[in-house]
Amino acid sequence: MKFKNAAVVGAVALASALALSACSSDGGNAGSDSTPSATKSATVDYSSLSGTITAGGSSAQANVQAAWTAAFQAQASGVKINYDKSQGSGGGVTNWLNGSYDFAGTDAALSADQFTQAKTTCGSDGAVNIPVYLSGVSIIYKLDGVSKLNLDAKTIASIFSGKITKWNDPAIAALNSGVTLPATAISVVHRSDGSGTTNNFTTYLHQQAPSVWTWDAGTAWPNNIGSGQQGGSGVVNTVEAGNGTIGYADQSSIGNATQAAVEVGSTGKFVEYSEAAATKSLDESGQITPQGEGDLTVTIDTTKITDTSAYPIPLLSYDVLCKSFKDATQGKITSAYLGFVVSKTGQEIGAKNAGAAPLPSSFLTKAAKTLASVK
């Protein structure tokens, strides 16, 4: 689905309706939701905030950040938020570590080395990774005459490693009984920039098909197969412009591109992305493994996904910020905004306007607690 101006209006309307509903239930303090994530967002006096938040990174977050920004600014008119998606996750983290951003959007949590480096950026308290956005990595393709396609992990890994080069390869045909597959050459499209989406995708390949995908997971594309494109939109546009093309992108950015159904493990069940399917996959595969106090890094093991209604390739995206800001005012407005993002209202806006999947309430409760400690 593509984000449009109408969705911004929808985000503002939804935020206002939810805020009014909360106020009417308790005389002005929106404490009717029992989760701290919802309570924190509702009890902040947004009208008292002013300043500019500068951030950037993950292109997967671009649509949802636009919706969150519109809804937040409807209540905090004194705050301006600039989010630059052009750098991707890798560039966003680099710019944040260099002190250019108040927070970085990234589809991969800070590495151990980056987490240590953050103490130079932030001071001795260091940084925290906050999960904010759950989606999925869609396998998109353009193949004339083929509107439905099933793929499993081994076949996907073989395609993206250059071992399968024709669309009528027996491995693909075996998964698609009754489908006439042409002898068209496969053209792989991948990210050229440092990408958290690439990290999520290669994590899946490395975990599910290690005998074929021998490279470690990472934000940089590891081989010279196919065409590298800048940003998720670059991948989607290139796939859509060709024939015989295949690529990967965050689900929210694929627009009208055709996505393959992906097999859950070796169950024989093939699942396309849906919000509910992504939430189920994180429930089964994700575990919070903190790198420090208050940090919410999540380790995902896709081999644990066995529910045949779960989507096999989840994408979890973070916002990364300092625990202690050098400018207390900047810390206040940044933590207020991200507190809104992880609130019940913020998550509903993400689902309505960017197809985001709801994060588990346990994640949101921990995120609200961490953000409350940012200063």
Automatic annotation (TrEMBL):
One of its GO terms (molecular function) is phosphate ion binding. It comes from the Bacteria. It holds the Pfam family PBP_like_2. Phosphate binds at residues 58-60, 89, 107, 195-197. InterPro entries: ABC_phos-bd_PstS, PBP_domain, Phosphate-bind_PstS. Keywords: Phosphate transport, Signal, Transport. Transmembrane segments: none annotated. GO terms for biological process: phosphate ion transmembrane transport. Residues 50-344 form the PBP domain. PANTHER family: PHOSPHATE-BINDING PROTEIN PSTS. NCBIfam families: 3a0107s03. Belongs to the PstS family. This is Phosphate-binding protein.
